[in-house]
């Protein structure tokens, strides 16, 4: 049983003072798949959520689809028999999404939708989904996931969540930090912790029920674990020196952390069952930012043991680390491993500043994906198709996302303060 400590300031899922993310999509992708998501018909009082608009937004920000604006649609059918396929073929639309929302009579709703192949004239997918007013937006994200998987044959990640830290500065010495959780598109943010001391490095448990993070509330860094639903939290690791960079093992039973209690930043594992620490690295250099491979057998981390920050890999039990990044410049840090274990996203330093790059572990090919000067904290979507990261913008820091093939994704900025340290959560059960 986890010990419960008092909250700092804010109760879980607080609604006041939420730092809401607003997202924008810069530019377009002409090679994206054309799709028309027709405004859903409504039968009775069906609430305020525009299901079709949420789906269009989801598909567009993935960079994989080019949804047709409703104003350009030749008609707005809600049933298969009402579709004039010739009209849609002339406009080059390959797929059509139709639907309707109906009150179910018990206070709930039913959302019915179909995905139609315009050129073959047949239905690819169709479902009736019971839902509620509170879950209407999540239902739209689930429909986007089904469309994504049907047309691209890869699991969608629209019905997932992100965690991040916002910083609001009242003065040079007075800042307010919030650890927040929101839908993957930045909507519905909830503050799970608020503090006047820095909050850093949120990391999701594999089941999405907890976040581990670093708090400086004791005037020194300490690693905490918090239940997202209840707000109950526990201090896991503290003490003199650095206590930082927690990251869960795939089994959810251990974390890998960076501690300097022995005089130098080293990599340790922390068992949630035994509460025991196990030291894995022994080197005079700085070893930090560790993360498990998806199979849990290896640990990737940043070390300057070669003269500058580079990515290394070792067994989950320690042993001699092997350098992973070669011929990629003098600065590569903050590795994050793709869900299939084949790619490493990292922060790459060069003449243009610090940008997000992706290394293919099999071919050793490396691509720089982002184009800003101060990009940091990459995090893969659970399907591996997108990477979210923090970047500098005109008003400060904001979140950006980009597909692993380099197609530009959305930008998400808070309307007040800065946003940092994004961590993309796992699939929801």
First-to-last CA distance: 23 Å
Number of helices: 3
Fraction of helical residues: under 10%
How many runs of DSSP E, i.e. beta strands? 31
Structural class: mainly beta
Tell me what portion of residues adopts beta-strand conformation. over 45%
Average pLDDT: 90
Please provide a written account of the structure.
By secondary structure, this protein is mostly beta strands. Mean pLDDT is 90; it is low at 1-17. It is globular. It has helices at residues 51-61, 85-90, 136-152; strands at 21-25, 33-37, 41-43, 65-67, 95-103, 109-117, 122-131, 161-171, 174-183, 190-195, 199-204, 210-215, 222-227, 233-237, 243-248, 254-259, 266-271, 277-279, 287-292, 298-303, 310-315, 318-323, 331-337, 343-350, 353-360, 366-368, 376-380, 386-393, 396-403, 408-414, 418-424. Strands 2, 3, 4, 5, 6 and 7 form a 6-stranded mixed sheet that branches. A 5-stranded antiparallel sheet has the order 1-30-29-28-27, with no helix packed on it. It has a 4-stranded antiparallel sheet with strand order 10-9-8-31, with no helix packed on it. Helix content is 8%, strand content 47%. It has 3 helices and 31 strands. A hairpin with a 5-residue loop joins β25 and β26.
Helix/strand layout:
Blueprint: E1 21-25, E2 33-37, E3 41-43, H1 51-61, E4 65-67, H2 85-90, E5 95-103, E6 109-117, E7 122-131, H3 136-152, E8 161-171, E9 174-183, E10 190-195, E11 199-204, E12 210-215, E13 222-227, E14 233-237, E15 243-248, E16 254-259, E17 266-271, E18 277-279, E19 287-292, E20 298-303, E21 310-315, E22 318-323, E23 331-337, E24 343-350, E25 353-360, E26 366-368, E27 376-380, E28 386-393, E29 396-403, E30 408-414, E31 418-424
Parallel strand pairs: 2-4, 2-5, 3-5
Antiparallel strand pairs: 1-30, 5-6, 6-7, 8-9, 8-31, 9-10, 11-12, 12-13, 13-14, 15-16, 16-17, 17-18, 19-20, 20-21, 21-22, 23-24, 24-25, 25-26, 27-28, 28-29, 29-30
Helix pairs in contact: 1-3
């Amino acid at each position: 049983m986890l010990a419960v400590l008092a909250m700092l300031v804010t109760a879980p899922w607080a609604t006041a003072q939420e730092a809401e993310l607003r997202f924008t999509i810069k530019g377009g992708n002409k090679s994206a798949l054309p799709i028309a998501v027709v405004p859903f018909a409504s039968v009775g009082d069906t609430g305020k959520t525009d299901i079709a608009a949420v789906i269009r937004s989801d598909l567009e920000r993935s960079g994989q689809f080019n949804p047709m604006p409703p104003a350009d649609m030749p008609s707005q059918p809600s049933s298969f028999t009402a579709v004039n396929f010739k009209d849609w073929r002339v406009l080059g639309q390959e797929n059509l999404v139709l639907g309707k929302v109906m009150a179910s009579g018990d206070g709930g709703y039913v959302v019915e939708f179909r995905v139609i192949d315009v050129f073959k004239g047949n239905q690819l997918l169709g479902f009736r989904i019971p839902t509620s007013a509170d879950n209407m937006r999540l239902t739209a994200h689930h429909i986007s996931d089904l469309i994504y998987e049907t047309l691209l044959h890869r699991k969608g990640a629209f019905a997932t969540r992100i965690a991040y830290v916002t910083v609001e500065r009242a003065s040079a010495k007075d800042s307010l930090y919030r650890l927040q959780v929101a839908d993957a598109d930045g909507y519905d943010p909830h503050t799970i912790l608020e503090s006047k001391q820095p909050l850093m490095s949120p990391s999701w448990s594999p089941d999405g029920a907890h976040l581990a993070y670093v708090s400086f509330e004791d005037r020194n860094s300490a690693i905490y674990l918090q239940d997202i639903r209840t707000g109950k939290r526990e201090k896991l690791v503290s003490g003199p020196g650095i206590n930082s960079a927690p990251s869960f093992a795939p089994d959810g039973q251990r974390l890998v952390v960076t501690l300097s209690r022995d005089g130098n930043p080293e990599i340790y594992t922390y068992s949630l069952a035994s509460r025991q620490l196990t030291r894995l690295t022994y080197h005079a250099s700085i070893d930090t930012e560790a993360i498990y491979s998806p199979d849990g057998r290896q640990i990737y981390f940043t070390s300057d043991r070669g003269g500058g920050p580079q990515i290394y890999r070792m067994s989950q039990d320690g042993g001699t680390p092997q350098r992973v990044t070669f011929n990629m410049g003098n600065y590569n840090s903050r590795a994050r491993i793709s869900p299939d274990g084949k790619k490493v996203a990292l922060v790459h330093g060069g003449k243009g500043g610090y940008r997000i790059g992706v290394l293919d572990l099999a071919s050793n090919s490396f691509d720089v994906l982002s184009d800003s000067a101060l990009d940091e904290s990459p995090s893969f979507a659970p399907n591996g198709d997108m990477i979210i990261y923090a970047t500098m913008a005109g008003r400060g820091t904001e979140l950006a996302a980009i597909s692993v093939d380099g197609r530009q994704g959305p930008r998400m900025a808070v309307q007040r303060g800065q946003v940092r340290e994004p961590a993309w959560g796992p699939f929801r059960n």
